[in-house]
Amino acid sequence: MSARSTSAPAPTPAAHPGTGDRGRLGAVSHWWTRPVPLARIAVFRTIAYLFIPVDVFLTTAWVSAHADVPTAYYQPLVVGELLNLPTPTSTVVHVVQWALVAAALAAATGRAPRLLGTAVFLLYFEWMVIAMSYGKVDHDRIAYLVALAVLPTIGVARWRDRRSSEAAGWAMAAVLVTVMLTYFLAAWAKTRFGGWDWATGSTLTRAVVRRGTFLSDWTLEVPGLLMTLQFAMLALEFAAPLMLLVWSNRARVALVVLLLGFHVMVYAGVTIIFLPHCIAILSILPWEKAPEVFAALRRRLGAGRAPVPAAAPPG
């Protein structure tokens, strides 16, 4: 028998000051860089880039109207001033618009992911500065903008790429944290600027009166219902950091269903939808499982079709 197998186990070393801190730092580092399959990145990247033409021409088509607004009304965001971005004249707006769409469609092919992805991020960043420098700043863009910023850092990824990457894990963790902060900071802003009057007031009542649909008008007739929903909304938004504990693929799917269900419900009730934020939420899904899911669906559909009996030979 070898000496290694017969030797007594080494004594446990005494705890060293700071060991627990290093362990916690290691756990945090592992969470941020937990490897993610590159196939997940490839699918989400395609979705994120193909959404840009939809956003430019449909969901935020009003941004291009700034091309006809006198430049005197342009009050750049702080970041626009710091970077000395150009004043959005008609030429600037249209060049950014069409260059953004062209770059996004090219990036959706997966080619030159770093070059084209960086171009998409910079152009969309400028598009958002043009959009939000006239007195209205939306909070549903930040997670999507972060997604566009981190996608180019990953490099080449294919739909059926089974390799895992820590860089991909870091990128998706950054998007998840930003999605979480969008909810948490929304609750913080509500209580900071409105106090608890936001929850006890008529916030949702006003929204339903102004933008309600037949699916939500009835809530005006139920005493206390909308106020209860306001408290529930604050509670859920303050609890948003819990989504960082999501680990398994099933939990990820459940989280996405919950978040998207909330936004669909809001749209059904008051016709407000945060589409860019919803696209960022899709980054949570385990897209690398998509080919297997589609193959299983095809097998089920094929098995459900009854075989056609062969024709009897003429007798």
TrEMBL record:
Q: What is its main location?
A: membrane
Region of interest called Disordered, as start-end residue ranges on this chain: 1-22
Q: Where is the HTTM-like domain?
A: 33-279
Keyword annotations for this protein, in alphabetical order, are: Membrane, Transmembrane, Transmembrane helix
Listed Low complexity bias regions: 1-15
Q: What kind of membrane protein is this, topologically?
A: Multi-pass membrane protein
Membrane recorded as keyword: yes
Recall the taxonomic lineage recorded for the source organism.
Bacteria, Bacillati, Actinomycetota, Actinomycetes, Geodermatophilales
Under which name does UniProt file this protein? Answer: MFS transporter permease
Q: List the InterPro entries hit by this protein, alphabetically.
A: HTTM-like (IPR011020)
Metal-binding: is it a keyword of this entry? no
Transmembrane portions of the chain: 47-65, 85-108, 115-135, 141-157, 169-189, 225-246, 253-275
- Cell compartment(s), UniProt: Endomembrane system
